[in-house]
Design a protein that fits this description.
This protein has 395 residues and is mainly alpha-helical. The protein is built from 17 helices and 3 strands. Helix 1 packs antiparallel against helix 2, helix 5 runs antiparallel to helix 6 and helix 15 crosses helix 16. The longest helix is centred in the N-terminal third of the chain and has 20 residues.
């Protein structure tokens, strides 16, 4: 196959795509060794098509699946479904092979797609919440026995049967399911309001309290964080955003290059429900962001500030931000997540005399009742208020 470091006759149908494919992979952060591997697999695919007198226009999903099956039978296990999909994605973007023809949606898929639009556009929910509600809706449809055929209209007895089958998981799934059942009634998929059939969810005994950080522990985490390489600079920038501004992990993940105004010294956070909040950019946070952005390469296709270190380069997800914070805090001897820094910031603002509505605005809470939970004193502060138990015989 022609291309960088590849000889060939040039008669193979995908030979002309090798150089562009190499540039595309390198732009996503793949190493030269990985790029050579992909070019080798592309050569095998091109030769496989040529041996069957096929050209790029014949490379449909079914033909690609047949190629992968032949490679696995020949012992080439490295051509996985994900790697083959990456090859096809480039070939389709380059116009070398036809675009995938989407299969018609089933009734179930159409209903879930409509539910997604309702949650995203109608309710303005966060992506994580949308994903969880769609997952529970799918589990409910599985419980109804829905395959690819028509979705039956659920009755109250059917709803209760599915919920009972979930066992102990029913308590956490009832709230997302109630949202789906109300959607069914609103859109005419259900003739009656079956959401009322769900039993009320009893709260667990006691109030779960998050593990609290002290200011000294937070300072120790920041002191031990970071490094001269891209990974270390990313860690310090993410930690300062959670510590100084109290951003959620999802808000750090959503941060775009367009959200930072270096001229005015402000940063805009994308809140839940599509809201936005503008903050002054502290000097240490700005320096950390500038250092990280100078160290990381430009990533085509995304304006996200935080991106993955490993290829393929893409926007860092919420779970990735949580992992960064937990790794840094564990290294300092106190494992905690981004929310613990939010609790600490709320307590510090309260001690500084900031009123509760102002703290709610900083933390992005619509209801000050939620903010009051964040401001409950931790064990370290309660210990300072506790009176010592009198020793027997002392006056």
């Amino acid at each position: 196959m022609s291309g960088r470091g590849h000889g060939g006759t040039g008669e193979e149908p995908l030979a002309q795509c090798a150089d562009g494919f190499a540039d595309w992979l390198a732009g996503q952060g793949f190493t030269s060794g990985t790029v050579r591997g992909y070019l080798r697999w592309l050569g095998w695919l091109s030769g496989w098509l040529a041996a069957r007198a096929l050209d790029g226009r014949a490379l449909t999903d079914s033909v690609a699946a047949a190629f992968a099956a032949d490679m696995r039978a020949a012992g080439h296990s490295k051509i996985t479904a994900g790697r083959l999909a990456r090859m096809l994605a480039y070939l389709r973007s380059a116009g070398a092979v036809p675009q995938a023809v989407p299969a018609p949606l089933t009734d179930r898929q159409r209903m879930l797609a409509e539910f997604r639009c309702y949650l995203e556009a109608g309710r303005g929910l966060a992506p994580g919440t949308v994903t969880e509600r769609l997952r529970v809706a799918g589990l409910f449809l599985d419980g109804l026995g829905c395959g690819d055929g028509p979705v039956p209209e659920p009755g109250a007895r059917q709803v209760l049967d599915v919920v009972r089958s979930w066992g102990t998981l029913a308590r956490r799934r009832c709230s997302p399911l109630r949202s789906f059942l109300r959607f069914l009634q609103m859109t005419g998929h259900a003739g009656q309001d079956v959401a009322g059939a769900l039993p009320p969810v009893r709260k667990a005994a006691g109030t779960r309290r998050a593990a609290r950080l002290t200011p000294a522990q937070a300072a120790a985490v920041l002191a031990s964080a970071g490094g001269p390489d891209e990974r270390g600079l990313r860690e310090r920038a993410a930690l300062l955003l959670t510590c100084r501004l109290g951003l959620r992990a999802s808000e750090v993940s959503w941060l775009s290059l367009d959200d930072i105004s270096w001229r005015t010294g402000t940063i805009t956070a994308r809140r839940k429900g599509g809201r936005r909040a503008e903050f002054p950019l502290p000097a240490d946070v700005g320096q950390a962001l500038a250092g990280y952005l100078s160290a990381r390469p430009a990533v085509p296709g995304t304006r996200a500030v935080f991106v993955t270190v490993m290829a393929p380069r893409r926007q860092l997800a919420r779970n990735g931000v949580c992992a960064i914070v937990r790794t840094a805090t564990a290294r300092a001897g106190k494992e905690a997540g981004p929310h613990q820094f939010r609790h600490l910031l709320g307590g510090e603002l309260l001690e500084a005399g900031v009123p509760l509505p102002g703290i709610a605005q900083v933390l992005g809470h619509r209801d000050v009742a939620v903010t009051s939970i964040y401001l409950e004193p931790g064990q370290s502060r309660l210990a300072a208020l506790a009176r010592p138990w009198p020793v027997a015989g002392s006056q």
